[in-house]
């Protein structure tokens, strides 16, 4: 993330915290809601759950932002909140059943389509048989990601989908850089094995 983006975020946070500027907070939401949704979707693999987690994250950020000390970048702090909420929701779904959900106040448009981010969208000029093969590969990739252990899936998504550095992921997940590199390598290997590549 560029220094310009970091300083821009800091200005918005200061306006919201010190001047109660709701517009500044709304800009942060618009800027990061798509990324929040993508990360939540990557952990959960479910659109509705990902939307709920992203919305819940911004409700928590809204309340907690005055206590944000700036020890890390806003985006890193936000990602940590989202990953933790998504993990909790994932565990809740496993224990209680995926049919249950929790309600959130304000809807946030993710602006990112369906959140299936592992493969680019098909070229409109593709032949029908190519589109069918593409959709089959996209579905297999999604299923392979879902089969990964949670720790591998999170690391792979943060690296591949979000483009975070190993150091940022290590900070976000509270691990050593070597652990993150290992999780990503193992996760990618498992995906390749599941796809028979």
How would you describe this structure to a colleague?
The protein folds into two domains: 97 residues, Rna Polymerase Sigma Factor, Chain: A, CATH 1.10.1740.10; 81 residues, Winged helix-like DNA-binding domain superfamily/Winged helix DNA-binding domain (Arc Repressor Mutant, subunit A), CATH 1.10.10.10. Helix 5 packs across helix 8 and helix 7 packs across helix 8. The protein is globular. It starts with a helix and ends with a helix. It is mainly alpha-helical.
Beta content: under 5%
CATH architecture field of the largest domain: Orthogonal Bundle
Q: Span from first to last CA?
A: 32 Å
CATH class of the largest domain: Mainly Alpha
Q: Helix- and strand-based class?
A: mainly alpha
Average of pLDDT:
76
- Residue runs with pLDDT of under 50 for 5 or more positions: 98-123
The CATH topology of the largest domain: Rna Polymerase Sigma Factor, Chain: A
Query: How many individual β-strands?
Result: 0
Question: Mind describing the biggest β-sheet?
Answer: none
Number of domains: 2
- Topology as a string of helices (H) and strands (E): HHHHHHHH
């Amino acid at each position: 993330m560029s220094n310009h983006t970091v300083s821009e975020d800091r200005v918005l946070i200061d306006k919201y915290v010190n001047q109660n500027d709701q517009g500044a907070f709304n800009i942060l939401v618009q800027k990061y809601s798509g990324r929040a949704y993508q990360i939540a979707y990557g952990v959960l693999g479910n659109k509705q759950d990902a939307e709920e987690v992203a919305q819940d994250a911004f409700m928590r950020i809204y309340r907690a932002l005055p206590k944000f000390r700036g020890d890390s970048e806003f985006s890193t702090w936000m990602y940590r909140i989202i990953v933790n909420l998504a993990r909790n929701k994932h565990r809740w779904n496993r224990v209680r059943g995926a049919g249950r959900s929790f309600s959130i106040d304000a809807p946030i448009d993710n602006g990112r389509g369906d959140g299936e981010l592992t493969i680019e969208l098909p070229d409109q000029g593709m032949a029908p048989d190519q589109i069918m093969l593409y959709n089959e590969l996209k579905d297999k990739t999604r299923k392979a990601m879902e089969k990964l252990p949670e720790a591998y899936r999170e690391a792979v998504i943060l690296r591949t989908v979000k483009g975070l550095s190993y150091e940022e992921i290590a900070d976000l997940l509270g691990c050593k850089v070597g652990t993150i590199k290992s999780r990503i390598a193992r996760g990618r290997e498992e995906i390749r094995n599941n796809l028979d590549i």
